[in-house]
Automatic annotation (TrEMBL):
InterPro entries recorded: Ald_DH/histidinol_DH (IPR016161), Ald_DH_C (IPR016163), Ald_DH_CS_GLU (IPR029510), Ald_DH_N (IPR016162), Aldehyde_DH_dom (IPR015590), ALDH7A1-like (IPR044638)
GO MF term set: aldehyde dehydrogenase (NAD+) activity
UniProt name for this protein: aldehyde dehydrogenase (NAD(+))
Keyword set includes Glycosyltransferase: no
Enzyme class: oxidoreductase
Taxonomic placement: Bacteria, Bacillati, Actinomycetota, Actinomycetes, Micrococcales
């Protein structure tokens, strides 16, 4: 894959990948510029949807849903099975688009597409396991059961940092649950969206499913308002900032729609005195600098016992000095670019605030390759020693900044871990079983993800993904997350020939 990009121009590689995925010339050309953070160059342009176009897409998706909900769930699973096969066949093509638009190193770009393949496998199995329960009735000759039915149109709003994986979590499950999907991708990663959509459209054609069960709309915030406001959109699944959630959640609730929100993360790891520091070091570095710190699960706070903080920070600074920063198409690169200039400016502002609040930058924070690539923003990941849980540490800066805090006893560590508004991912490195158990107990981490002896990022699709507090409370991907895409009905079946009432009520 990297050889393909490096042998030709970036734009040529992207054009070839789009063609391989089945994106036609008619889908390209327009006023929206697709830029690459690798170089800052415009790769291609694409047309954008108007507000009327988005409403029309919702109409098509709703009409298709009325057919799709009648299709047996295992048959619906055939679409996702075929999509998974096509994703496997075109894994490198789609990864080229992800790398070119999101700036990921090769293994991460390929891993993102693999995540799509994995959720397809999961969803195909789930299509035969949309289980309800049978409950005993207090009335003779009666039976109680719960059934699960398709919900309706699902609106998916995705973010740039995982341009296709998180979208696929929603789409694969929504489609096997009998819903239709309207997808609004990030305006930063529209080419990846075109590639993923083209492969799904082919899977829909190959399996004879209703053509309109999946709609892609490339639209700005104004044009896409119908996804939030149209009552035919039964569920809106949105990934993004806390501010995004605060803006859309009340509007969805006002029309009694459902919202699945996956918002900010300000993730921490506790390092206890008993921890294997070499293991912790590897877990911390990947979680803190992977995707150039632009994951929702990026480790942003490190809470270290005061007895080992100097030793661990010395190891971390040394490890950061070996990181290869640069062109993510190069096999040896570990840290690619920030997505754009705004992200760079946000990082510099956060570092300035940290210094003003008593922090000491131990390493990193500066821009590199500015002369070679003036329109791209490559940075050195930063480690900042903070004296306390200060204001800057409360915020999520979408950049590779790791704040190091200390603690003296375990309750203090838990208080520091939980003492931020966000609640997505958390971790502890310890060989003390009691500490590990306490960390994942009800009185421990208040996050949706609580890991032991592994970092905060790198979740598998088998478990439910999501967090609490300002993270939004949504759950996606594995476990029983499928239920959010369906509506539940309780059925009472009377086969007695009599009509007794519950609770012993007598009437007539």
């Amino acid at each position: 894959m990297t050889e393909t990009i490096r042998e030709t121009s970036l734009a040529a590689s992207v054009s070839r990948a789009l063609e391989a995925c089945g994106v036609t010339a008619e889908a390209l050309g327009g006023e929206h510029e697709a830029r690459s953070p690798l170089t800052g160059e415009v790769l291609l342009t694409v047309p954008t949807a108007t507000a009327e176009d988005v409403t029309e897409a919702i109409t098509k998706a709703h009409e298709a849903f009325l057919q799709w909900r009648e299709v047996p769930a295992p048959v619906r699973g055939n679409v996702i099975k075929r999509w998974g096969e096509l994703l496997t066949e075109h894994k490198e093509d789609l990864a080229i688009l992800v790398q070119a638009e999101a700036g990921k190193i090769t293994s991460e770009a390929l891993g993102e597409v693999q995540e799509m393949i994995d959720i397809c496998d999961f969803a195909v199995g789930q299509s035969r396991m949309l289980y309800g329960k049978t409950m005993p009735s207090e009335r003779p000759g009666h039976r109680l059961q719960e059934t699960w039915h398709p919900l309706g149109v699902v609106g998916v709003i995705s973010a740039f940092n995982f341009p296709v994986a998180v979208y696929s979590w929603n789409t694969a499950l929504a489609l096997v649950c009998g819903d239709s999907v309207v997808w609004k991708p990030s305006g930063i990663t529209v080419l990846s969206a075109l590639g993923a959509h083209a492969l799904l459209a082919r899977a829909i054609r190959d399996t004879g499913a209703p053509a309109d069960i999946h709609q892609l709309v490339i639209a700005d915030r104004h044009a896409s308002q119908a996804i939030i406001e149209d009552p035919r959109v039964a569920l809106v699944s949105a990934t993004g900032s806390v501010r995004l959630g605060q803006e859309i959640a009340p509007r969805i609730a006002a029309r009694f729609g459902r919202a699945l929100l996956e918002l900010g993360g300000n993730n921490a790891a506790i390092v206890a005195p008993s921890a294997d520091l070499d293991l912790a070091l590897r877990g911390i570095v990947f979680a803190a600098v992977g995707t150039a710190g632009q994951r929702c699960t990026t480790m942003r706070r490190l809470i270290v016992h005061e007895s080992i903080v100097d030793e661990l920070t010395e190891k971390l600074v040394s490890a950061y000095g070996t990181l290869r920063i640069g062109d993510p198409t190069e096999p040896s690169t570990l840290v690619g670019p920030l997505i754009n200039e705004k992200s760079f400016n946000d990082m510099q502002r956060a570092l300035a605030d940290a210094r003003a609040q008593g922090g000491t930058v131990l390493t990193g924070g500066g821009r590199v390759l500015a002369d070679e690539r003036p329109d791209a923003y490559y940075v050195e990941p930063a480690i900042v020693r903070m004296p306390r849980q200060s204001e800057v540490v409360q915020d999520e800066t979408f950049a590779p900044i790791l704040y190091v805090l200390t603690y003296s006893d375990f309750p203090e560590a838990i208080a520091l871990q939980n003492g931020v508004p966000q609640g997505l991912s958390s971790a502890i490195f310890t060989n003390d079983q009691a500490e590990a158990e306490k960390f994942i107990s009800a009185a421990g981490s208040d996050c949706g993800i609580a890991n032991v002896n592994i970092g905060t990022s790198g979740a598998e699709i088998g478990g439910a993904f999501g967090g609490e507090k300002e993270t939004g409370g949504g759950r996606e991907s594995g476990s029983d997350s499928w239920r959010v895409y369906m509506r539940q009905a309780t059925n009472t079946i009377n086969y007695s020939g009599e009509l007794p009432l519950a609770q012993g009520v007598k009437f007539l």
